[in-house]
Amino acid sequence: MHVARVRRVHKGKAYESVLLRQSYREDGRVKHRTLASLTALPAAAVEALERSLKGESLVSVATAFSIVRSLPHGHVAAVLAMLRGLDLERLLDRRPSRRRDLAVALIVARILAPASKLATARGLGATTLAAELGVDGATEDELYGALDWLLERQPGVERSLARRHLVPGAPALLDVTSTWMEGRCCPLAAHGYSRDHRPDRPQVVFGLLTDAGGRPLAVEAFAGNTADPATLEAHLDKLRAAGLDDLVLVGDRGMLTSARIARLRELGGIDWVSALRAPAIKHLVTEGHLQLSLFDERDLVEITSPDFPGERLVVCRNPVLAAERARKRDELLRATEADLARIAAAVTAGRLVREAAIGLRVGRVKDRHRMAKHFELDIGEGSFTYRRREDAIAAEAALDGLYVIRTSLGPDVLAAPDVVLAYKRLSGVERDFRVLKGRDLEVRPVRHWREDRVRAHLFLCLLAAYVRWHLERAWAPLLFRDEAPPERTDVVGPPGRSAAARAKDGRHLTAEGLPVHGFGSLLAELGTLTRNRVAVGTPDAPTVEILSEPTPLQARALALARMSPLAK
User: Fold this and answer.
1) What is the distance of C-alpha 297 from the center of its chain?
2) How far is CA 213 from CA 94, 273, 519, in A?
3) Whether 539 contacts 68, CB under 8 Å
4) Please, are residues 104 and 79 in contact by the beta-carbon 8 Å criterion?
5) What tens digit of pLDDT does each residue of 162-174 get?
């Protein structure tokens, strides 16, 4: 039996009949007998019958193929593409090696799913990362070895990054933070000012060096009780090692103190931008060097003062910041009054009598709200009164929103508005700290007890932050970021957002109609693009690897990360 297709033309129109026929021989001649008409059957059914009559064994799709393994791949491919596009592998070592591949795996894993080295070793095979880098079966000890190998290359890599992104005369941003540690054995672990609000834990201080855009370039670790100004010399050594002496250092008032600025003058060749502390600003006002009436019609003025010879002082008044500080102060004053009123009521009712006990309760309130300077307190045996110091509150309110930028740069080098912008760029370093210390890269808590391992851990996180910084900018069209911020006309007030960014924020859709994401959710979305190992027939049959079809969002994200959506 066989399937026959008979075609004929009737009145100019073509017809095709599909028949099931039987061929047989009679009187030495081959004849055909029609058994059934298959014309009304679906084409797939006809094809299946035809293949069956030809001797093929037909099986269902469910039994013909089996997925042996399916691994998340899209996020691995995107991060690796960006890392390689930045030539970071070559910066680590020009020669390929397993150590280098393991170090790259640590950097990528820190971006995808930050975890301890043990958890990272166990999770390498949970995505295509291990297969992509050829580090299948890597152990925890191998990862620690790669971490030590990475630390040996820190000076060379940081020199290369500084030379790549910093040029003579360009601003280099410096800032310092701290993070808490587990255990007490590390020589760097010490109790100091905890920016993480964990005074119960020892900490390590680390400083970050970035370019003007906040791109992280170098990191240095210090003992947890190191003051911010004491970290400056280490960063200067890094810049000198990179051959970059003619730079502009931008640091906050806690780092670039008057003593450190004097040290920069001794060294020579390094200009700086910093800010004055509140007492110094108040002194400028009381001594008459700064007239508050200057801000009646403008928000930026440039002054000089004999207290700061050879420096330019750019004074700004931000009305938005002033309103926010006034709001916070009013809330704290009212909260302090409410607590003090409860203490006064307890004294009046006779529940609180002893002067020492009253003082102890009042001390707790002072520590909680830090508003004692605005109250007059009278504590006695069985008595307690308080009132606001309206003159002190008014004097502080007069300086709300006022800040002073100081710099060694002349007006021919940097105009006053540009001086303000240079200092405000420190917000980029603060953002890097939030990325490093938050859920994005989880630099904290530090669980290493050896000093070299702590330094290696911080350097690893720096490299991950470097790759992530570039990924965020490449993916700006898909993220809640402004791709093309408008040029600032007011350097004192907050920056504006473009109309396109506002539309993206409001619709939660890009101009192409794709959903807008945060960085983490976009990585998770890319992780649903899988690489599948498929066996044809039985599971132990030969396998092929097939990449799942990318969604429009995944294809766009991969293209922005400088790779083909179908690259394996």
Assistant:
1) 39
2) 28, 16, 18
3) yes
4) no
5) 999 998 788 899 9
**Residue 368 sits in the same domain as residue 422:** no
Q: What is the C-alpha separation between 58 and 61, in angstroms, rounded?
A: 9
The reported pTM is: 0.83
For 442, other C-beta atoms within 10 Å of its C-beta total 16
Q: 498: helix, coil or strand? A: coil
Q: Which amino acid is at 180?
A: W
Buried b (16+ CB within 10 A) or exposed e, 227-241: ebbbbbeebbebbee
Digit-coded pLDDT (tens) for 122-155: 999 999 999 999 999 999 999 999 999 999 999 9
Q: Hunting for tokens 């958890």 — which residue is that?
A: 119
- Shared domain for 429 and 345, answered yes or no, is no
Domain co-membership, 444 together with 345: no
Q: How far apart are CA 399 and CA 158, in angstroms?
A: 41
Beta strands (DSSP E) in 224-322 are 248-251, 271-275, 300-303, 312-317
> Are 273 and 407 in contact, with CB atoms under 8 Å apart?
yes
Tokens 């593409």 identify what position?
Answer: 81
The count of domains in the chain is 3
Number of Cβ atoms within 10 Å of the Cβ of 509: 12
Residue that terminates a domain, selected from 348, 374, 397: 397
Please work out, in degrees rounded to the nearest 5, the angle formed at the alpha carbon of residue 123 by the alpha carbons of 117 and 124: 90
Q: Which of 349, 369, 397 is the last residue of a domain?
A: 397
Which of 78, 3, 62 shows the shortest CA–CA distance to 34?
3
Query: Do 371 and 390 fall into the same domain?
Result: yes
Asked if 162 and 217 count as a contact pair (C-beta separation under 8 A), the reply is: yes
In this structure, are 451 and 434 located in the same domain? yes
Alpha helices in 247-382 (DSSP H): 258-267, 278-286, 319-348, 355-369
Domain membership of residue 184 as a residue range? 155-318+401-470
Question: Are 275 and 258 spatial neighbours (Cβ–Cβ below 8 Å)?
Answer: no
Q: Is residue 20 part of a domain?
A: yes
User: Cα dihedral angle (415, 421, 422, 423), rounded to 10 degrees?
Assistant: 120
- Give the pair of three-digit tokens for residue 540: 């132990």
Same domain, 297 and 412: yes
